[in-house]
Write a structure and sequence with these properties.
- By secondary structure, this protein is α+β, with helices and mostly antiparallel strands.
- It has a single domain (about 50-130, about 165-330, about 370-505), classed as Outer membrane efflux proteins (OEP) (Up-down Bundle), CATH 1.20.1600.10.
- Helix content is about 65%, strand content about 10%.
- The chain contains twelve helices and six strands.
- It has helices at about 30-45, 55-70, 80-90, 100-110, 110-130, 160, 165-230, 235-270, 295-305, 305-325, 375-440, 445-485, and strands at about 10-15, 20, 135-145, 145-155, 330-345, 355-370.
- Strands 1, 2, 3, 4, 5 and 6 form a six-stranded antiparallel sheet that branches.
- A hairpin with a 3-residue loop joins strand 3 and strand 4 (about 145-155).
- Helix 7 (about 165-230) packs antiparallel against helix 8 (about 235-270).
- It is elongated.
- The termini are far apart.
- This is Outer membrane protein TolC.
Length: about 500
């Protein structure tokens, strides 16, 4: 056995060695029986941990359907891939709704599949941590001219075996935390996809409205051009109309660029490529009834998946701290069993060669004791890690309450803004433009007033589209502020427009 080179560099080890026992041939069967029983016990302990049939996905599927009513599946073989592809193709045949887009993303997004693979790795780590420590086998042979010594040994960690139940429980807790993190990834993808769908739908609506306005402006410009040629309209009025038409052309080009950009962002969320890129985005949904929620703070504290993750991590740290305190005075305990076979030859006084053979067994216990700090640094580190997690959990609980209130406030404000546009602003703008056109036809006002009214109506319609987009993003933020998974990612005031048609734009 090799001794430490410096007592200051390595904790001291206490070696307890039993007496050497001479083995008789009669006891060979007994030794074989004992080794067989030891191997059988090790195999029995190893059989206690195994992989689940679904790789831990059952909990993810149940939680996802309960929270957002959608299906998830891990693509692990060709059959699962074909089933998911058929479902995606079926959804893409019709114009996508927000719910359909979320379902496509959950089945087709490869980043989410990578999160499922990570869950499988976490299960493998759990199973590995739940198994007994592997024994270490060694054999050596020392031979000379007249002597042969063969030594066989087996070494196992008693401390690892004694703490196996506690370590296995901690490993199971960590796997359950990994499941909650995977569920959080699912919810985040669902929220991000829904938000991006609304932006893409609003971008489509803006393009449709600008195209309609451009068509009307082109007809008016052609009319003023003919009137100018006949002298019925002066050049300044013609210039104002042509400038208005040019501005609309620029705005339409900008809206189309925004439309392409938002669509590509949605494509990335859905994980589509090739022929699947021909999918159509539906329109922005109409304004629903106002959702009234009581005790939103309590509901968020009860449902938020990130808070449940923080609580689970704190519980696991508490168990780890208990294990650290229990083993603070001993770093490791190794039990070593050694069998030695010696064979030698000698020449007696008569010149004859005599052969001698002996067998012995040794039992050695090796204990690693931290004599310099008695485990204080290890325990202090565990305690500070636990208190850090406890303080972060308390901070998260405070923040979640505030996030729930903020999300509801934004949801309610955007609802009122969108409703104001639909019930008051757009109808009044329509009346103003109609009356302005009548007065212009009756020569009661000039083209300047007509262009100003038309420009104001265009701005109001675009603002109404953006308000409806922002409401649905705020609606998504509010929902996920209660359940978690991307609740902080949806800024309703993003300049990006979303998709849909112009049906609700209030033309």
């Amino acid at each position: 056995m090799t001794k430490p080179s410096s007592p200051a560099a390595t904790p001291s080890r206490i070696h307890t060695q039993g007496p050497a026992l001479t083995a008789s041939p009669v006891s060979k069967a007994r030794r074989l029986l004992r080794w067989t029983l030891l191997a059988g016990a090790t195999a029995l302990l190893g059989g206690c941990a195994s992989f689940s049939a679904d790789g831990g996905m059952g909990a993810i599927q149940t939680a996802t359907y309960a929270d957002i009513g959608k299906d998830v599946a891990k693509i692990g073989d060709d059959q699962a891939a074909l089933t998911a592809k058929d479902r995606v193709d079926q959804l893409l045949r019709k114009p996508l709704t927000a719910d359909a887009a979320v379902q496509v993303a959950l089945l087709n997004n490869r980043g989410l599949q990578a999160a499922f693979n990570e869950l499988g790795m976490a299960e493998a780590q759990m199973v590995a941590a739940s198994l007994p420590p592997n024994p270490r086998f060694g054999i050596s042979k020392l031979s000379g001219r007249f002597e042969v010594e063969i030594e066989r040994q087996i070494v196992g960690s008693l401390l690892a075996l004694a703490t196996l139940p506690a370590r296995a429980e901690i490993a199971r807790d960590r796997f359950q935390t990994a499941q909650m993190r995977t569920a959080e990834a699912v919810l985040k993808l669902a929220a991000d996809t829904r938000r991006q769908y609304y932006r893409a739908a609003a971008a489509n609506a803006q393009v449709a409205f600008y195209q309609e306005a451009k068509s009307s402006t082109d007809a008016a410009s052609e009319l003023l051009k003919r009137l100018g040629e006949s002298g019925g309209v002066n050049k300044i009025d013609q210039a104002r109309e042509f400038a208005f038409e040019a501005e609309l052309t620029v705005q339409l080009a900008q809206a189309r660029q925004q439309q392409r950009q938002e669509r590509e962002r949605l494509v990335r969320q859905l994980g589509l490529w090739g022929d699947d890129l021909k999918f159509r985005v539906g329109s922005l949904p109409p304004l629903p009834r106002l959702q009234s929620v009581k005790a939103i703070e309590a509901e968020a504290l009860r449902k938020r998946v990130d808070l449940r993750i923080a609580r689970a991590e704190l519980d696991t740290l508490a168990k780890s701290l208990g294990l650290t305190q229990a083993t603070r005075f001993v770093n490791d305990i190794d039990l070593l069993g050694r069998r030695t076979y010696d064979r030698s030859r000698s020449v007696n006084d008569h010149g004859h060669v005599e052969r001698e053979a002996s067998r012995s067994r040794t039992l050695e216990l090796e204990i690693d004791i931290p004599i310099y700090d008695f485990g204080q640094s290890k325990v202090a580190l565990a305690e500070q890690t636990y208190m850090q997690a406890a303080n972060k959990l308390a901070e998260k609980a405070v923040n979640i309450r505030s996030e729930a209130r903020e999300a509801y406030t934004a949801y309610r404000a955007h609802y009122d803004i969108t409703r104001q546009y639909q019930t008051n602003v757009l109808p009044l703008r329509k009346i103003i433009q109609e009356q302005s056109l009548l007065q212009y036809s009756g020569m009661l006002n000039d083209v300047t007033d007509l262009i100003a009214d038309a420009r104001s109506r265009i701005l109001s319609n675009v603002a109404a589209i953006n308000a409806r987009r922002d409401f649905w993003i705020a609606h998504t933020d509010f929902k996920h502020a209660l359940i978690g998974g991307g609740s902080a990612g949806g800024s309703a005031t993003v300049a990006a427009a979303g998709g849909g048609d112009a049906g609700g734009a209030g033309h």
